Amino acid sequence: MAVRIFRFIICFAAILVIGLGAQQLKASASSSDSIIKIFLNTKELETKTPAKVKDGTTFVPVRAVFESLGMKVSWEPKQQLLTMKDSEKTIMLIVGEKTATVNGKTVALEAAAENIDGALQVPLQFVGDATGTVVYWDPYNAEVSLLTRKFIKESNIDMVELDSLIKEYMDKKAKDEAAKKKEDAQAKIKKKPKTPVDLNKLSGMYAGFRSDFGGYECGGMCWDMYTFLPNKKVFIGVPANGGPETINCKKEECLNYSISKGQLKLSNGKSLSIKKSDSGFLVINGITLDKVQTVPKGTKFNNTYKYMGYSGLIGITPAANSWTYKLTLRKDGTFELSGVSIGSLAANSNPSTHTSHTGKDEKGTYTIQNNTITMKGSDGKVLKSLFFIHDSDVDDIQIGLRNYYVK
After folding, report:
1. For the chain, which terminal residue's Cβ has fewer other Cβ atoms within 10 angstroms, N or C?
2. 22-56 per-position pLDDT tens digit
3. Residue 82 burial by Cβ neighbours in a 10 Å radius (0-12, 13-18, 19+)
């Protein structure tokens, strides 16, 4: 299990290689805007109230975590007593006290349980002490990982090797973070979006990524996209025929929206959290988004790009696998694909779409206008898809829901 990056150490060896590591560093730079995520084995837990770091201690919501571990949670408000019980253990603690009992045996807490943001929360370390669950906290990406003993046994995970790899990762991240802080202090410059968002005047497409733990939804990285149109309409996702300039609300689903009290209220009945970060970025549903910029006229591309993804946890999940697509864009307007057809080039990143390899290279011509790339294969097939450049860097491009980059 050759793994090199914390939470993905637990799930997939090649994450750092595919460049997600570098992009996660970008996200962690604005971690004050991020929400702490909790993962149990291979799945992210949905919590009404997020975990919280307070006075150096990571707290997690009691009900969400212990119920996910199969325990029944009860609360007696008069006594301020929490009880978590299953067939093997009974855990009892009183809010405000720094001790608890596990099957009658006293266990010390790093900090007392307390009500945080409307939910009863306990220190993360206590979850492991009380249940035997292995717990990890990644401060650099604001993520909690929980591994049950049953999962560890069934997956044949070598805990000595896993702990060693995580220590290696943490040491490297600490050094990287120290170097970054020094660089930031010297530069005295904070990254800001090219166009700071105005919630009262939203216009154009905004895009941001979120990690896909396990690779079951988007092959490792999911992209959230919102295009704000005139007359308080919004299109969510990737346009069918190219960039945001191609959206036709008569043929595609555009929703009416309003913004009130930190909520983006949609005409389909859904409501998403929305805010402007301290640095000026748009944040929707906890994901930091940047405005998609039009590709400047005359921009030349002369690189070979890679898109890599995975499904399942390499070294842990049976039948896990990974894949790589190569795309060459030449400055003469020609392209070449390695082992995949243009029909699947910009397909949704769901792992089920990765099997469309042709076993041969495909060639053709391409043009880019605004945020639309038009590719014509040698067989006459034409693909029109969303296209934009990340951070004005022609080595890092987006086609549809997939991020292609130069290693």
Report:
1. C
2. 233 233 333 334 578 888 987 888 888 888 888 77
3. buried
Both tokens of 379, joined, read 């067989």
CA distance to 41, 63, 162, 207, per residue, from 95 (Å):
28, 14, 34, 41
Sorted by where each begins, the domain ranges of the chain are 45-143, 204-291, 303-405
State the average pLDDT for the chain. Answer: 82
Decide the pairing of beta strands 81-85 and 72-76: antiparallel
* Percent of the chain's residues with pLDDT above 90: 51
Q: Note whether 339 and 325 are within 8 A (CB).
A: yes
Instruction: Give Dmax over CA atoms of the chain in angstroms.
Output: 75
Query: Which pTM was predicted?
Result: 0.58
Cα–Cα dist 255/71, whole Å: 41
The whole-number average pLDDT for the span 239-266 is 96
Who's near 276: CB < 8 A, 6+ residues apart? 196, 197, 198, 199, 282, 283
16: number of Cβ within 10 Å: 19
CA distance linking residue 235 with residue 247, whole number of Å = 8
Q: How far is C-alpha 17 from the geometric centre of its chain's CA atoms?
A: 16
